[in-house]
Amino acid sequence: MAQTSGKEKEKDKEKPAKQSFAHCWKQNLRAWKMWFRQSPGFFASTLLSSACGALAPYVTIWLSARIISELSGGRDPQRLAFWAALTVGVTALLALANGALKRWMGYERSRLMAVRFKPLADKMLTLDYAEVDRQEVYDLYSQVSQNDNWQGFGLYQTLLIFPDFCKAAVQVAGGIGFTLTLFLTDLPAGSPLAFLNSPLALLAVLAAMVAAVAASSACGNKANLTMSQQASLSTFGNRIFGTFGFLAADTKRSADMRMYRQQENVCRPIMSDRDMLLFAPGGTLAKMSKGRIGLLMGLSQALSAVMTCAVYLFVCLKSWGGAFDVGLVTQYVGSATQLFGGISLLLQALGQVRANGSFLDATFRFLDLPNHMYQGTLTTEKRSDRNYLVEFRDVSFRYPGSDRWALRHVNVKFRIGSRLAVVGPNGSGKTTFIKLLCHLYDPTEGEILLNGIDIRKYRYQDYIGIFSVVFQDFRLLAMPLGENVAGAAEYDRDRAARCLADAGFETRLDAMPKGLDTSLYKDLDKDGVEISGGEAQKIAIARALYKDAPFIVLDEPTAALDPIAEAEIYARFDAIAGDKTAIYISHRLSSCKFCDEIAVFDQGAIVQTGSHDALVADAAGLYHKLWHAQAQYYTRS
Ligand code: ADP
Q: How far is CA 572 from CA 434, 592, 626, in A?
């Protein structure tokens, strides 16, 4: 916790930079354009549904006013019946249209919600691997997703703002149309209120009403802005909660949790620390709700009520003074309330655009992260002769942000169909070597060639298509076994079963309750099976075999296997690798004895190459030293 309680905590508490409204509006438009490309239907349905929803009250208000005017005036039964029937018919039709449009909008929204995180996920998957690995990128991604988790700030918020905008625009336009005559109809000359006819008096009344609406919205917006400015604190609070809130449910930690009473000693004190959690009882948010935010919200509501009173007063006074009949009182009060409601909604939506601006900045900063790796266009041609030759030519590599060389002047060629072992102590650069081979990183110096051409010039997907790798930290999915092996929902069942058998999983497969359809783990299926580390390793190997790529790489599976099991897997693998070029990585030399060529890594460099026998015979070499150290370890009783 030293890390999170010191400087970082202070950093996280920083308030987001204030942006100009024009900037926020530009960001909001960009988000709308992005969503529009994804779902034009959402925008069309929202526009129509909001327009219909906003217009409906005006139609009802206008028709009701006609009925009341008739009741207070001519009282003609036939005309009354006509207005009543029209009101019922039109209201019913509008309700039907409104319902249908709302359903359409709901459908489009659900479709959009299903791909709500797609822009972020797509970006994460297409970013250079080196970028994904960077702490700053992880922090930014985490900030963007926490903002969304907290109150939908960022891209999602723009989807909430759009319907408000449509509704407000139509409501304001309709309101102006229906209330225009309220201000233009003069009181009869001689009325004690005739002074209200003067343009100045009208302007003053109108200005007072607009000012009250604007002040009410400003208070509401200020409260929202104050809330949104807590986002960085909330991100930090969510991180704490995400890290410590669910430890008790993590079965892999159960033993540690009990042994060291971590729940009582670590989690609980952190989770109840008021400084850490925005949402804790008595925490920052609670204090603000009782203070500043509460006050602003209350003021906003009070001003809105004052404005409604003013509308009633003005309309009733004009009617009392003889400007119009009682039927129009209903129309004017109703439509003026709608008009000012619309103005308030518009200001509120603009306030949301403002409050969301800094969150969109973070989102677009993430989406705009550049890829620095050169994107080649050459295809690797699916050669039937599998005649692929890879060569490292004087390759050196430093991890981004590191000043230490992880690889230094590496020169090596893979002979087609051969078995190459990469051995060496921990931290000597073996995994880095494989990551460069798979073009997850570009070399800092030197070049890697495939059939004589720099691998950067190949189309990335084509290039990685020629490799099957079982990474040290591979991951399986909580999905059916067969789908894990094939990496697809539709697959060749015979081939998947054959690959599992080749990987030594045949007996276990026979014992699986639903064969290839048995789910791994219990996350999504109560009948799922738990598998051991060694079994998972075999499934991962079957997955690599199913891909049937010309190069196959096995990165030291030592975490899951004992030395004997590892040697067995390597020997079996050698048999099934067939005509493929196989690369084995291990720090256990005995596992790789059978290989045609062994490259010994030390401190990022290849210090020796040769066959096992030749290397053991070189008494001055590192391999000899390591071999005897390990042999001694296993032969001592
Ligand atoms: P090996 O596979 O032989 O155990 P690695 O290739 O994993 O060794 O590591 C080689 C060196 O590169 C080590 O010094 C290690 O600390 C460093 N290294 C590995 N991964 C990273 C990374 N993502 N960022 C910075 N340094 C790294």
A: 21, 12, 24
Q: pLDDT band for 359, please (50, 70, 90 cuts).
A: very high
**Cβ of 384 less than 6 Å from ligand 1:** no
Residue 135 Cβ contacting ligand 1 at under 6 Å:
no
Of 131, 399, 408, which is best to mutate to test ligand 1, by the most ligand atoms within 8 angstroms of its C-beta?
Answer: 399
Query: 555 CB less than 6 Å from ligand 1?
Result: no
pLDDT in tens, 172-200: 999 999 888 888 888 888 888 888 888 89
List, as own/partner pairs, every contact residues 483-492 make where C-beta atoms lie below 8 angstroms and the sequence separation is at least 24, other chains included: 484/520, 484/539, 484/543, 485/516, 485/539, 485/542, 485/543, 485/546, 486/543, 486/546, 487/543, 487/546, 487/547, 491/546
Structure tokens at 435: 């990551």
**If you average pLDDT over every residue of the chain, what do you get?**
86
- The residues with which 585 forms a beta bridge, in sequence order, are 422
Q: Which pTM value belongs to this model?
A: 0.76
The atom of ligand 1 lying closest to the CA of 587 is 3
Give the pLDDT confidence of 109-165 residue by residue, as tens digits.
999 998 888 999 999 988 988 888 788 898 899 889 888 887 889 999 999 999 999
Nearest to 171 by CA among 343, 363, 2, 16: 343
Pocket test of ligand 1: the residue of 423, 431, 469 to mutate, having most ligand atoms within 8 Å of its CB, is 431
